[in-house]
Each structure stands twice: as C-alpha cells, then as structure tokens.
Amino acid sequence: MKQLKQSRNYRDIYTITLCLITILTIALVRSTFSSQEKITTLRVDVNLVNILCTVQSKQGQLINTLNKNDFLLKEDGKTQKIIHFSREVTLPLTLAVLIDTSPSVQNILSLEQQTAVEFLKSVLGKQDLAMLMNFDRSVSLIQDFTTSIRHLEKSIYSVSIGGGTSLHDAIFLASDEKLKFETGRKAIILISDGADTTSKLKRKEAIEAAQRADTIIYSISNRIGGFFGANRGSPGTLKRYARATGGTAFFPKKPQNFKKAFDAIEKELRSQYLLSYQSSNRNQNGKYRSIKIRLPKKKGLRVKARKGYYASTL
C-alpha cells in the first residue's frame, strides 16, 4: 500500500508537472505569435511620415481654409501621395519650455517667467502636456510632463540664474530623452539669446535630435533690440533651429513684444495642417530625407514645415 501510495504521488506530481509544461508551452507560442503580429503591424506602418505645417500669406496672415488637393508634397524630389489630411486643432499638444538662465538674462528673467506662464495658461487644454527645462552651464529638468498649470507655474518661478549657456545640449536632451517618446503634436518653446558657450554637443546634433523626435522649435530671442541689448546673442542659431523644424524665430524689440511672440506661437499651434504619406522609399537605412511642400494652385502663400526627417532603421 505504501509503495502504491508513493506511486500515485509520483504520478500526480508528473501529471501536474506535465500540465504546467503544456500551459507554459501554449503561453510561449501565443506570446510568439502575438510578438510576430506586433512586429508585422510595425513594419506595415514604418514608412508612414507625418508632417505638421502652417501656411501664411505674404503679409504673415495664417491661412487655415486649404484642402488636401491644394498641397503638393515631395520627398527627395519624388512626389508622394498624401493619404491623410486634417486641420489640427484638437490633436493633443506636447510642449517643452526651455528657459535660458545664463547670467546674460538676469535683467529680464522675471519677464520671461511671467509671459511663459501666461502662454501656458492660454494654450494648454485638458489633454495637453508640458514640461520645463532650464539651462545655463548644465541642463535641468525642473518639471516633467504634466497637465497641471499650477505645477508648471510653480516650477517656472523657481528657476534661478547660473553660469554658462548649454543651449545645444538642452535642445538635444529635450528631444532625445523626452519628446521622442511622445505622440501627437510636439513643440519646443526656446527662450534664449542663441549664444552657446558650454555645450558638449554641436548645433547639428541638436537639430537632428529634434527632427528625429518630429518636434517643431519656436525660438524667442531675449537679446534683440534696445530693451534686450542690441547686437548680442546669436540670431542665426535661433533662425536655424526654427527653419530646420518648421517653426518660427521671434526677435522682440520691446517688452510688450515678448508677449506678442507667445501669442503668435499660440495662433500657429491652432492653425496647423497634418499631412501623412507612405514614403515610396522603403529603405530603412536611417538616412536623412528632404521634404518640400508647395501650393501650386495658391500663389502668394508660403508653407512652413520641417525640411526633412530621418528614415527608420531595421
């Protein structure tokens, strides 16, 4: 009896073990098929390119009444078929506010803070996110992505002056470590004089990171004009960041114009078009591809969009 009992116990253990192995095998197979399905889906969409743009008249008026047939889009000189078109005012918005806290902005830091808070209060909706970084010699994340205006306001007024200016590092880190993981409409609001003195990275690397993250850069100079200190900073740097990503560079000459720059950014963000196309270039080589958007039927209008993007890699 004792041997029979032991035999039954062994069989029970064997049966349980076999069941567990079977269950684990089924789970593994399902997991494998699930992973394959996910990979297949990813490969289907890997060449989908989304471009946000705005259209302006010669007088600078934003035009938001155009249709898909008005646009002609080319990638590396080859015409692409626009498969999705929309006027984007409801797609969630993700903002990264980058404030220069180098010694050169000591006199206007309070104005930067005040107008930045007012801008966020007016532009952020319930589904939108914003974060705050400041940069001097180093780059600091003061407030991570949040929907709370109260938290953002508190963090903006908490920044203080430091030494040095690591502008390129700030753009790179905001793009590569934060924005590239977000979806929807993304933009960097850069408040700086454009002069970089302490970055480890180059401007080219920062622009590439912003383009890979599908991020538009809006630059607001705090060093142009009599109030801001004439002929100081690097206007060219601010312009290059904006042009390469489809944004705008602003150069206020009076204190009140600083707020006007924020107002103009808000209007642009509410007047965007989204153009999506399946790239005819199927090579997943990670190389840069140029983009040009025209309006053949609409003379006198100007399209602002990023100049290109980086293809995905295998």
Present the secondary structure layout.
Blueprint: H1 2-45, E1 48-57, E2 72-75, E3 78-80, E4 82-88, E5 93-100, H2 109-123, E6 129-135, E7 139-146, H3 149-156, H4 167-178, E8 185-192, H5 203-212, E9 216-221, H6 235-245, E10 249-250, H7 255-269, E11 272-278, E12 288-294, E13 301-305, E14 308-310
Parallel strand pairs: 5-6, 5-8, 8-9, 9-10
Antiparallel strand pairs: 1-11, 1-13, 2-3, 2-12, 4-11, 6-7, 12-14
Characterization of the model:
It is a single chain. This protein is an alpha/beta fold. The chain has three domains: 1-45; 46-89 and 272-310; 93-269, von Willebrand factor, type A domain (Rossmann fold), CATH 3.40.50. It has helices spanning 2-45, 109-123, 149-156, 167-178, 203-212, 235-245, 255-269; strands spanning 48-57, 72-75, 78-80, 82-88, 93-100, 129-135, 139-146, 185-192, 216-221, 249-250, 272-278, 288-294, 301-305, 308-310. The strands form three sheets. Strands 7-6-5-8-9-10 form a six-stranded mixed beta sheet, with helices on both faces. Strand 2 and strand 3 (78-80) form a beta hairpin. The longest helix has 44 residues, at 2-45. It starts with a helix and ends with a strand. Mean pLDDT is 84; it is low at 1-45 and 226-231.
Strand order of the largest sheet: 7-6-5-8-9-10
Largest sheet: 6 strands, mixed
Q: What Rg, in angstroms, do the CA atoms define? A: 26 Å
Overall number of strands: 14
**Structural class by sheet pairing and helices:** alpha/beta
Give the name of the CATH superfamily of the largest domain: von Willebrand factor, type A domain
Total number of domains: 3
